[in-house]
Input
Amino acid sequence: MPGRPLTRRTTVGAALASPLALAACDIDPPPRAGGSAAPSPPPPEDSELVAAVVAALVRARSVVEAATLSVPDLTPLLAPVATSHAAHLEVLAGAVADTDVPAPAPTTIAGDRARVLGVVRRSEQRLLREVRRGCVGAASGDLARVLASMAASTAQHGAALADPTTGGEGP
Output
């Protein structure tokens, strides 16, 4: 039996719910029922991985900000993406003590709505590749789960941006 097609309402609802779902994400393992041991920090080999994902998130957030400045009527469409990027950065920035959030390079995007959305979609695809790479390469299972959640959120936003009914394609 084929699944139901993805509707705009489902896509937008999922995009709006992703920050709520992300709020449940935590890199620390759940407390043990019988022990009071402090959670162990992520393995040191994950530090570089987290830094790479943070840098990719900062770049993607910069592109979203530039897109909304270039074409202000995209703000309602891109607001859930920007909110998710901010929530993802908040989770990851505290995951590894040595990770500093880099300052984004100034980004400008010129063009019409379709071109600007194309730039945002490509940026989100690059981000998705980086998050997936991190998910696969994470030594910490907790970090891998958080990155998997972020990958799902990023993929959902990509689907929403590519859906013609959301204004993601066309002239």
